[in-house]
Amino acid sequence: MLFRNARLLLPDRIQPKGDLRVKENRIVALGETLPPEPREAVLDLCGKFLAPGFVDLHIHGALRRDTMEASTDAFQVICRFHATGGTTSLALTTVTASTPKITAVLEAVAALDPNATGGARILGVHIEGPYFSKEKPGAHPLEIIRNPNPAEYGEWLKYKERITQMTLAPELPGALELIEALERHGIRASGGHSDAWDEDAAAAFACGMRQVTHTFNCMSGARRRGAFRVAGLLEFAMGEPEILCELIADGYHVSPTLMRALYRAKGVDGIALVTDAGAGAGLAEGESFTLGEIQGVVAGGVALTADGKALCSSVSQMNQLVKTMVEKVDVPLFEAVKMATLNPARALGLEDQIGILTEGALADLVVLEEGLSVAMTFVNGQRVV
Predict the structure, then answer these.
(1) Are strands 365-368 and 49-52 parallel, antiparallel or unpaired?
(2) Calpha distance 153→241 (Å, rounded)
(3) What's the CA gap between 22 and 372, in Å, rounded?
(4) In whole angstroms, how far apart are CA 210 and each of 79, 165, 172, 187?
(5) Where is 81: in which H helix or E strand?
(6) Residue 351 pLDDT grade (very low, low, confident, very high; cuts 50, 70, 90)
(7) Is 276 known to be catalytic?
């Protein structure tokens, strides 16, 4: 297929007029004008934006379906829904749960063809929890939050090819050994749900931690220790160039002022947009859902625990996050798209395959209207939306 008359969203600019050719499942050519080949289908985009498909490192669910169901049907619903927001690759994300329940998700994903969802491709599993600070649980059940246990996580590491990252509190007993184990197995360690002091974050960084989860949310900040003010995980992450900061840019989890501060501190390359969407995504105001075993409700544009005391994932899709960054944080569109594509792809070492419009990359594409609504989504060159 030849995509014609598009505004191409490249990592460093918008090319105002461009064509892009796909053969089989790969991008094979880009240019200002590409002549059609014999028997080639031509799609005239009439000036719409053509971007790489979005890459979401942190998704729990959608439409009342949840990763913790550990079922092919649930995974397909989640992947198809998020493809309507332009996401073409995603990491299914767990919550704090029992060992067997987390293992069941890993087993289910390992048994599934990651491209056979009818929507976004499954990159693997992001294990979020259970190794959190009880001071920063968020919506996760406090009673089953626990310290790292090699006997437990050793079973999960048997599925290393299917684990994209693990979120943990780096200050916990045994956390540094876990980070080192993740590093050895090629799994990304991400600090989150943490009450860490500056030195805890620095020690985790020395052991291989290169990411933090949903920056600002459930994360320690600067505070006094005795007579002195000491940084927390937030300030360490903002000040360390090698740390990639996840950001739920829905306009609710983090205010525009804080998002602007993060952008000024980290620059375009230091942020990965994530939806952290749960089973409430796609539901109407007031509708209820479960996140693992957590009861939630959609209220005021976000998902809250049933008692209204804590955020409980988001209800957003990735194109909405890009729009928020452009409209509320004054980030150029091509930079906001890079935060949703190339940056997360690079975090997983997949930057030559996904997240970029370049020859040889997979033909994961999203066509965006002027207002950044999604017109079409393609995965492996096949239209799914």
Answers:
(1) antiparallel
(2) 29
(3) 23
(4) 27, 11, 17, 11
(5) helix 72-83
(6) very high
(7) yes
Q: In the sheet where 302-305 sits, what is the strand order? A: 288-291, 294-299, 302-305
Tokens in use for 105? Answer: 């998700």
Contact predicate 349/32, CB 8 Å: no
Q: Which pair of structure tokens corresponds to residue 126? A: 């992001």
Helix (H) or strand (E) holding 221: none
Question: Which pLDDT does position 326 carry in this prediction?
Answer: 98
Contact 130, 144 (CB under 8 A): yes
Strands 374-379, 365-368: pairing is antiparallel
* pLDDT of 155 over the 90 cut: yes
pLDDT of residue 325: 98
Indicate the pairing of strand 26-31 with strand 61-62.
Answer: unpaired
Query: What is the Cα–Cα distance from 36 to 265, expressed in whole angstroms?
Result: 45
Separation in Å, CA 185 to CA 178, 215, 379: 11, 25, 28
Does the structure show a pLDDT above 90 at 294?
no
Cα–Cα distance for residue pair 1/139, rounded to 1 Å: 45
pTM score, two decimals? 0.97
Instruction: Give me the residue spans of the domains in the chain.
Output: 53-352
Give the tokens for residue 372: 């950044």
CA-closest candidate to residue 16, choices 1, 30, 5, 28: 5
Q: E strands along 32-86, which residues?
A: 42-44, 49-52, 54-59, 61-62, 65-66
Domain 53-352 is in which class? Answer: alpha beta
Q: Which residue out of 276, 330, 352, 364 is catalytically annotated?
A: 276
Residue in the structure block whose two tokens are 């060992």: 99
Inter-residue contact 243 to 211 (CB < 8 Å): yes
Q: Do 58 and 214 form a contact (C-beta atoms < 8 A)?
A: yes
